[in-house]
């Protein structure tokens, strides 16, 4: 009789909890490749979060600005609206105002905003910085302090600022930290090692190994995800056994295919539909390559990707 | 490719400290060496209690239980010429973190240890030797085949036998070195796993030279297909060589801090 072969792996991804109370989410925990439920334990279902901004989202497409027009001037209202209306697994608050090349809001002011948001919702919160490593170091230190006890995820620590971000975030104020590398498998491992060497174990670390929209280095992201997961599972590489988070919307809503107005390129069709398609396409590929959590912007994308995950995991 | 398997050699009754600790049933010096080796990256620990012809059946279970209790059921290689002592050790061994390794069987008087391995679902180091020093690779491979057939007849997985080509000392047997490496290649090309007691290669050489010979021979042996060895993991040069071989072979993903792991 035919006996279905089962692939066994020596490693397992660590489980990381973000948030508090009933809505606490658990990331990771899988002992097999993504969605390979026929091989073993797929761990926690991949989590889908929604992006909001701490200031009015000037750069977003009109359809989204319209959707959030009553709430987008206030991150607390916005977060509550998203929580109630779309019930995402988590909310990602991007501190756009802190950007030193923009409004350059102070870490203290930003921390106040984050505190107000986290106290107003039950959904787990992820806070994203500016991408300016020096500013993010100071920013996350204050944010971590203001949110102590809420178990938020700080996104992200990089090689330049991990000592401040991870030490303040995790060791001093008991939040979680995302370790960021930019689609570089060796650096993805190295940043985890560096954070481990501060005395922070894998239960407090999520990895952001980098992300891209289709056509913008996407294949490289996919192969990096594959290699990270394979090293974690088949080689039992403990330094890579952390859940992965992918900020899809940060990438896909910048590219021309998503934002080009219809009047400029009518042959490309409806702008909003294109943006949603770009977001969903990037998300599904990245999930099937091993990401444990993704950040999306459009509610329609959330709906489609959620049903994609549910269909695959039954 | 699998990561190279390091079996730590430092719990050995040739060391006066360990000999005394065993005699006095004092776990402290044994635990100290176990910890040092595990911290240095040993995956298995070899436990050599000597011939122990008198009280081996009491010593082996005692030491196996003690070390496994203290170190989360670390997998062990049970090393003595006293077969009854090995069997007594196997009876109390916890295989949660890996099968026990019997150290060792050969194609001569100690071939019975293969039966023991089969009976207890253990791995077994199989010395490609019968009496004295194996002459050449023809002889080496014939012993290897003999041991393999014996194991398979008893229902063992071929990969549960770790074939030891028998490392020879450079000082005195320099002309044999290339042949030993070739022997490792011949065995590994059959898809079999290999092991060796490395330190014999540098026996008799000055203390400051030995780590250099050991590390270099190790790199050459790994390139020839060697999959495990009984070594001193606390030897920094050797440890770094093995880690680097793992990286070059793609068994471990590179990161700038890989030597610190």
What does this structure look like?
The complex is a heterodimer of chains A (314) and B (261). Chain A is an alpha/beta fold and 314 residues long. Chain A has a single domain, classed as TIM Barrel (Alpha-Beta Barrel), CATH 3.20.20. Chain A is 41% helix and 14% strand. Chain A is built from eleven helices and ten strands. Chain A has helices at residues 62-67, 75-86, 107-120, 133-146, 162-172, 185-197, 218-234, 248-252, 256-259, 271-288, 299-313, and strands at 15-18, 25-28, 47-53, 90-94, 125-128, 153-157, 176-180, 205-208, 245-246, 293-296. In chain A, the strands form two sheets. An eight-stranded parallel β-sheet of chain A has the order 8-7-6-5-4-3-10-9. In chain A, strands 1-2 form a two-stranded antiparallel sheet. In chain A, helix 6 links the parallel strand 7 (176-180) and strand 8. In chain A, helix 2 (75-86) packs parallel to helix 3, helix 4 (133-146) packs parallel to helix 5 and helix 10 runs parallel beside helix 11. Chain A is globular. The two termini of chain A are 27 Å apart. The mean pLDDT of chain A is 97. Chain B is an alpha/beta fold. Chain B has a single domain (5-260), classed as Alpha-Beta Barrel (TIM Barrel), CATH 3.20.20. In chain B, 44% of the residues lie in helices and 15% in strands. Chain B contains ten helices and eight strands. Chain B has an eight-stranded parallel β-sheet. The mean pLDDT of chain B is 96. At the A-B interface, helix 6 of A face loops of B.
Layout: helices, strands, pairs:
The complex is a heterodimer of chains A (314) and B (261).
Chain A: E1 15-18, E2 25-28, E3 47-53, H1 62-67, H2 75-86, E4 90-94, H3 107-120, E5 125-128, H4 133-146, E6 153-157, H5 162-172, E7 176-180, H6 185-197, E8 205-208, H7 218-234, E9 245-246, H8 248-252, H9 256-259, H10 271-288, E10 293-296, H11 299-313
Parallel strand pairs in A: 3-4, 3-10, 4-5, 5-6, 6-7, 7-8, 9-10
Antiparallel strand pairs in A: 1-2
Chain B: E1 5-12, H1 16-23, H2 27-39, E2 44-48, H3 56-70, E3 76-79, H4 83-92, E4 101-106, H5 112-119, E5 123-127, H6 137-153, E6 161-164, H7 170-173, H8 177-189, E7 193-194, H9 210-223, E8 228-231, H10 236-248
Parallel strand pairs in B: 1-2, 1-8, 2-3, 3-4, 4-5, 5-6, 6-7
């Amino acid at each position: 009789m035919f006996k279905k072969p089962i692939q066994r792996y020596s490693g397992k991804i660590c489980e990381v909890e973000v948030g508090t109370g009933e809505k606490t989410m658990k990331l990771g925990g899988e002992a097999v490749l993504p969605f390979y439920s026929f091989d073993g334990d797929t761990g926690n279902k991949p989590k889908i979060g929604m992006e909001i901004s701490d200031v009015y989202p000037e750069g977003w497409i009109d359809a989204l600005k319209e959707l959030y027009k009553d709430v987008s001037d206030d991150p607390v209202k916005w977060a509550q609206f998203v929580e109630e209306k779309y019930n995402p697994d988590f909310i990602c608050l991007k501190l756009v105002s802190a950007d030193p090349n923009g409004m350059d809001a102070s870490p203290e002011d930003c921390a106040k905003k984050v505190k107000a948001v986290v106290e107003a919702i039950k959904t787990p919160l992820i806070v994203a910085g500016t991408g300016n490593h020096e500013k993010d170091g100071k920013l996350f230190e204050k944010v971590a302090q203001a949110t102590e006890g809420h178990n938020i995820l700080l996104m992200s620590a990089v090689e330049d600022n991990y000592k401040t971000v991870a030490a303040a975030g995790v060791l001093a104020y008991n939040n979680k930290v995302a370790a960021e590398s930019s689609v570089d498998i060796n650096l993805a491992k190295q940043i985890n090692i560096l954070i481990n060497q501060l005395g922070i174990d894998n239960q407090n670390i999520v990895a952001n190994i980098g992300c891209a929209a289709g056509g913008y280095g996407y294949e490289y992201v996919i192969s990096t995800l594959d290699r990270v997961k394979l090293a974690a599972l088949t080689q039992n590489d403990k330094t890579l056994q952390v859940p992965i988070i992918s900020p899809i919307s940060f990438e896909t809503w910048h590219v021309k295919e998503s934002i080009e107005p219809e009047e400029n390129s009518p042959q490309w069709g409806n702008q909003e539909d294109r943006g949603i398609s770009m977001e969903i396409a990037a998300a599904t590929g990245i999930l099937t390559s091993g990401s444990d959590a993704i950040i999306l912007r459009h509610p329609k994308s959330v709906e489609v990707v959620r049903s994609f995950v549910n269909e695959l995991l039954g | 490719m699998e990561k190279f398997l390091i079996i730590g050699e430092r719990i050995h009754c040739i060391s006066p400290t360990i000999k005394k600790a065993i005699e006095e049933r004092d776990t402290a010096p044994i635990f100290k060496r176990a910890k040092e080796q595990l911290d240095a990256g040993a995956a298995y620990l070899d436990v050599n209690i000597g011939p122990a012809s008198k009280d081996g059946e009491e010593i082996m279970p005692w030491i196996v239980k003690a070390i496994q209790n203290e170190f989360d059921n670390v997998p062990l290689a049970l090393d003595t010429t006293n077969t009854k002592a090995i069997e007594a050790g196997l009876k109390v061994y916890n295989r949660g973190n890996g099968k026990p390794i019997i150290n060792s069987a050969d194609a001569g008087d100690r071939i019975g240890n293969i039966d023991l391995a089969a009976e207890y679902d253990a791995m077994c180091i199989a010395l490609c030797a019968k009496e004295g020093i194996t002459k050449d690779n023809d002889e080496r491979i014939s012993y290897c085949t003999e041991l393999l057939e014996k194991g398979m007849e008893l229902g063992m997985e071929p990969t549960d036998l770790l074939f030891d080509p028998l490392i020879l000392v450079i000082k005195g047997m320099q002309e044999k070195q290339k042949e030993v490496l070739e022997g490792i290649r011949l065995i590994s090309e059959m898809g079999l796993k290999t092991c060796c007691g490395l330190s014999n290669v540098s026996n008799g050489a000055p203390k400051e030279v030995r780590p250099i010979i050991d590390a270099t021979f190790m790199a050459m042996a790994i390139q020839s297909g060697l999959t495990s060895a009984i070594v001193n993991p606390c030897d920094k040069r050797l440890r770094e060589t093995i880690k680097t071989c793992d990286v070059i072979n793609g068994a471990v993903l590179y990161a700038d801090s890989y030597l610190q792991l």
